[in-house]
TrEMBL record:
Similarity comment text for this entry: Belongs to the FAD-dependent oxidoreductase family.
Record keywords, A-Z: FAD, Flavoprotein, NAD, NADP, Oxidoreductase, Redox-active center
GO molecular function annotation: monodehydroascorbate reductase (NADH) activity
Protein name: monodehydroascorbate reductase (NADH)
Cellular compartments per GO CC: cytoplasm
Enzymatic reactions: 2 monodehydro-L-ascorbate radical + NADH + H(+) = 2 L-ascorbate + NAD(+)
EC number: 1.6.5.4
Domain Monodehydroascorbate reductase 3-like C-terminal residue range list: 344-431
Provenance organism: Stephania yunnanensis
Coiled coil (residue ranges): none
SUPFAM superfamilies given in the database record: FAD/NAD(P)-binding domain, FAD/NAD-linked reductases, dimerisation (C-terminal) domain
Reported cofactor(s): FAD
Domain FAD/NAD(P)-binding: residue ranges: 6-321
Family annotation (InterPro entries): FAD-oxidoreductase/Apoptosis, FAD/NAD-bd_sf, FAD/NAD-binding_dom, FAD/NAD-linked_Rdtase_dimer_sf, MDHAR3-like_C
Amino acid sequence: MAEKSFKYVIIGGGVAAGYAAREFSKQGVKPGELAIISKEAVAPYERPALSKAYLFPESPARLPGFHVCVGSGGERLLPEWYTEKGIELILSTEIVKADLSSKTLTSAAGANFKYNVLIIATGSTVIRLSDFGVQGADSKNIFYLREIEDADKLIEAIKAKKNGKAVIVGGGYIGLELAAVMQINNYDVTMVFPEPWCMPRLFTPEIAAFYEGYYAKKGIKIIKGTVAVGFDSNSNGEVTSVKSKDGRSLDADIVVVGVGARPLTSLFKGQVEEDKGGIKTDAFFKTSISNVYAVGDVVTFPMKMYNDVRRVEHVDHARKSAEQAVKAIFASGDGKTIDEYDYLPFFYSRSFDLSWQFYGDNVGDAVLFGDSDPASPKPKFGSYWIKDGKIVGTFLEGGTPDENKAIAKAARLQPAIPSVDELAKVGLAFACKI
Ligand code: FAD
């Protein structure tokens, strides 16, 4: 069988791989030294677009428009860019075996790839309802969203079931974004999730109340406190309804499930140290094996600010961890060191004409400020999270770029607050003065 050797191999061709490639180029990688091996058929792109503009009925985002690194305002790396730089993009190739002792990866087609240095950037995969044996979960027109292929299948169904009914299972950001785009596609939308409010891992009940109120205004129905326990289908095997644990039956032409993701670490099980479900690395994204690095969704890394180790499934960290790892690889080659990764968590989402950003840690007491009335013509509000008298987390809906910078700075600098009442009254102006 075919065998190819590279100095550096990145396994996975998503966000982290694309940003790593750009950093490799900046660091002066030579033609032929680097390969990216990806299961996907296209060059690295900004994955968040898949649940947003990619699904719009009018002027949808399409490749090559959103290849990395446009999402962070950088150069767009078209497939030709990789060719020009002598970076080999090995697409539509799934690695099914990784032997870290012989430094060999094997593809599903049986090809072997050898490397000196490996970067693991396999990201996450969706959690499926069929994993829990939910009855009827493999019916047609039940969709999950991770890769461009998934989004393309959903678009075909949106067209085929025109103006139909959609049920969104899951109340996280994927559920919220999907509910919005399905409504924009003129679907009658119902969301179902077990928690008492949407985005419970981040939102306070007050923040959630705004989004739920706003969605209700758009005609989206939200059923909370129950789960999907089964699906009915017609003679073609297409889903027709979702059954909930509390005894409802919700008509559905399309179901989109967003119930979480799982890091893709299985190829490396028993070969590298793991922690908290991810591949454990140091502050330079080096794993327990010295020539193997891991970046993006798969890694559990030291979160210096909070003296903790964490795994983060957000695009900003995918970009920054990739850059840090490549810088560290080149620095160590030159016998130099670089600063430790000092990450400030950052997460955002957009739906309808809403847009929020979150920075820092959502621990301690939350202090809401601003106008969070979903009926307002121009709602704008936020929240601070306060711990030991200091701001540790910040959230803002509808911020300008400068205001978002200000809340990021507040979460980074963790200033002491005057009093909770005063902070609630001053609101955003407090962060803007730091
Ligand atoms: P990925 O981008 O998932 O890339 C992993 C790559 O590895 C894929 O190409 C995959 O096919 C490939 N791969 C996996 N296993 C193998 C194998 N065995 N062989 C070969 N290739 C393999 N984050 C935000 O902060 N804000 C958002 O608004 C937001 N929106 C999102 C919307 C959607 C629909 C999704 C799915 C994610 C969103 N995220 C968002 C999360 C963000 O996209 C991820 O955190 C980010 O993509 C992680 O980058 P990564 O490179 O680690 O993994």
